[in-house]
Design goal:
The structure holds 2 protein chains of 2 kinds. By secondary structure, chain A is mainly beta. Helix content of chain A is about 0%, strand content about 55%. Chain A is built from no helices and 11 strands. In chain A, strands 2, 4, 5, 6, 9, 10 and 11 form a 7-stranded mixed β-sheet that branches. A 4-stranded antiparallel β-sheet of chain A has the order 1-3-8-7, with no helix packed on it. The N and C termini of chain A lie far apart (about 35 Å). By secondary structure, chain B is mainly β. In chain B, about 0% of the residues lie in helices and about 55% in strands. In chain B, the strands form 3 sheets. In chain B, strands 2, 5, 6, 10, 11 and 12 form a 6-stranded mixed β-sheet that branches. Classes of the chains: A mainly beta, B mainly beta. At the A-B interface, strand 5 and strand 10 of A face strand 5, strand 6, strand 10 and strand 11 of B.
């Protein structure tokens, strides 16, 4: 079966702009979690959506937001981009939510200049 | 607060040699522990997980890990490393209000290089 799909794979933005990243889960998976990966901070949890509702949230500023659609696809948005937002953004999906059986996508590499 | 420490940033081993990657965790209750691998340009792939029961868990690609509560450790091992094992390895602990509403807390990772 098809894996987790993330689009776009690479993105270059300018400081102050906003960006939207997309994650399409494995068929049957209702939960989508987002993680930010940077060399300095490592992998950090952003938020999780389950059945269109945000169920869990990490310690990130309000500039980071997300949503989930009825087909379980999820988008995350970052407004007013800062240089420090340059990172690999990974989404992980699962049937039941949480961390039990997460499958990760290949990530979107965001570069902010 | 929960945390995961991977003391080794970078390890180099010869092909065919054994491997042990260290992981220490801090968590109040019984931890849910994971090892993931990330190859360049790829997402994370789950190698193995420990929830309860037998403290020695077997994973994919010939990896195993042992949970030692007394040492708060969950070290990853492989008896004979292959060149294709070169990648970055992440240890993680599941945190939150039960697995279905929790999230992963990751260590900073250990990069494995394999010498021919």
């Amino acid at each position: 079966k098809a894996g987790v799909t993330q689009t776009p794979r690479y993105l270059i933005k300018t400081r102050g702009q906003q960006v939207t990243l997309s994650c399409s889960p494995i068929s049957g998976h209702r939960s989508v979690s987002w993680y930010q990966q940077t060399p300095g901070q490592g992998l950090q949890f952003l938020f999780e959506y389950f059945s269109e509702t945000q169920r869990n949230k990490g310690n990130f500023p309000g500039r980071f937001s997300g949503r989930q659609f009825s087909n379980s696809r999820s988008e995350m948005n970052v407004s007013t981009l800062e240089l420090g937002d340059s990172a690999l953004y990974l989404c992980a999906t699962s049937r039941t939510g949480g961390f039990y059986e997460q499958y990760f996508g290949p990530g979107t590499r965001l570069t902010v200049t | 607060a929960q945390s995961v420490t991977q003391p080794d940033i970078h390890i180099t081993v010869s092909e065919g040699a054994s491997l042990e990657l260290r992981c220490n965790y801090s968590y109040g209750a019984t931890p849910y522990l994971f090892w993931y691998v990330q190859s360049p340009g790829q997402g994370l792939q789950l190698l193995l997980k420990y929830f309860s029961g037998d403290t020695l868990v077997q994973g994919i690609k010939g990896f195993e890990a042992e949970f030692k509560r007394s040492q708060s450790s969950f070290n990853l091992r492989k008896p004979s490393v292959h060149w294709s094992d070169a990648a970055e390895y992440f240890c993680a602990v599941g945190a939150g209000n039960g697995g279905s509403q929790g999230n992963l807390i990751f260590g900073k990772g250990t990069k494995l290089s394999v010498k021919p």
